[in-house]
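anyone seen this seq b4? input:
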Amino acid sequence: MSKRLYWFILSIVVLLALAAAWWGTRPLPGKIVAARLGEESWKLPAEAMPSRKVKLCGSTRSAVEVSVPSHFVVDLPPRTSEVWVSTGVEKADHGSAVRFEIAAEEGDNWEPLFLISVPPERGGEWIDHRVEVPKRYRDARRLRFAVYLPGEGKATRVKAYWGSVLALKPKGIRRWRAWLDPQQAWERPNVILISLDTLGARHLSWFGAPAGVSPHIDAWLDRSFSFRRAYAQYPNTLGSHASLFTGLYPTGHGVDETLSRKVPSSTLAAALAEAGYVAFAFTENAFVASDFGFDNGFDWYDNGQAPLSSALRVLGAAEETFGRARHALDEWLSFGVPFFLFVHTYEVHSPYTPKDPEALALVNRIDPDYRGPFGTAFDAPDVELEYNTGIRQLPERECMRAQALYRGEIHYLDRLLHEFLTHQQALPSARNTLVIVTSDHGDEFCEHGKLGHGETLYNPVLHVPLAVYWPGRVERGTYDEPVELVDVKPTVLELAGLPVPPGLQGVSLAPLLLRKEKMLVRQPAFAEMRFTPFAVDRAARGKCTEMGLPADCRVERVAVQDRRFKLISSLYPPFEFLFDLETDPGETRDVAAEFPAEVERLRQWVRKYRDGWQAADGSPEKTSPAVDPATLERLRGLGYVE
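predicted toks r here
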């Protein structure tokens, strides 16, 4: 080899090495939440107000309350490239715009990075902003957060808020490390959790309902890893979502419709936020409102303001809710920041009111020639209450119509969900986004002498859809053994490569989803109800003892089921039923006398579960919710309170 060729080759090698070194020191694309103002990772100065949850116009943020005018100074977390912040002013007639300013320290001066004036008409709402931090300010600089009135404006009594202030920095994985060890390049997935309130599994065509009710949801279940026997832990929205969020049975989180306790702070959102995720939620108020603690861990929690109607108690608002979530995906969650997005809608909750001609056409196809009072809607809370308390009977024809209208609602929701998922799947972030679609409970339509939910522990209420989709990581498939909503939290954490905290009562389904196991060894599925199932101060007043209940109409019962057998054990009123789900999936015939060994086996599980009641009842009282008037009005609209 000639010297000239030798030096030429050596020069090329050196240049490639230098280029690789430069390229390798650069972080992989994307950002991660490095700190949240007011938490341990980004402390406030001693003189500042502590951070707390503040609700403005139905949305909550972790906010720092300040007077006008005022300012405070904090250190800027190292390598911060962007700050996300919400600004808010208490709604009041103060007559002047309030100015919010963020400035960076530069020598003896403060250089503005952000300035906005909030006019009086925008008081009482959150305004959200993304603030870029220039490179020259990214190394251990300080930031000043100031609020003041323009000109010589005097101090006011108006409260101002800095909400959910997040410091974002580039992801820390270096390219050379990712090249040497591909596992280093593995990204934690984004997570989208969609809860379709009151959507019972048996009303989807995929589970055997009439063809055409849910074609898009059916297709999604086909392309996902779907669970044919997923069960809720509580027959109402509040208790069931508390289990979904915490991975705990009701004995562990203590939340039921007595409204005496809030959801514990150790939610799925809190675990993901601690790992650097940004967490957004869009729901429709009522029992999934921030009032009950569901906003724990979320940076943005939009309770929503579903429209009320004088003709009907309340309407679902899936179109608006999915629209807000879609906007967040496009405008906020498309910058490489790992995110957790929770979307919840009451669309198919009673009253059953199909929204468009296509939905009503389906209703009349599956229930033709109807001539009764519920032609286009079933909006009869008094009928439901009186039927459930035995005061009146309801003809089977009306029960069938209510079910058909409910399925019409599902058909309408099916198309809205399809539009949202189609949009989400077209985004660049979709390649690494884990999508979970489920529900909190279903409804009954007179099968066991009840309408709606919250009255029994039969499977029409407990059986819910559960589908997990993650392209390239989770293959499509089905699983026929019982699983529970408490399994969702540990499953998401394990799939995200995060530690599953001790004490969770759910079981991670990740080994199934990643094809590491074909079967899970687990305990049976549990559900409970411990509350008054109807309004004792209305039509049922004075009838508690006649129905075999205590004077306060308290109900306490547990259901435990495996693949074949299900035991419902009730203390108040006292009864016990065993069902053979293989031969009697409708739970119509008690077979306890035929299978005494199975009764005793499942009784042991019930006893073990009830031991948790004593532990929960003896624990220190958790924080009671403070329910605002808008949430109470929403609960009235849904028929939960007077």
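Residues 109 and 257 are 55 Å apart (CA to CA). Confidence is low (pLDDT under 50) at residues 173-186, 306-313, 534-539. kinda curious what u guys think
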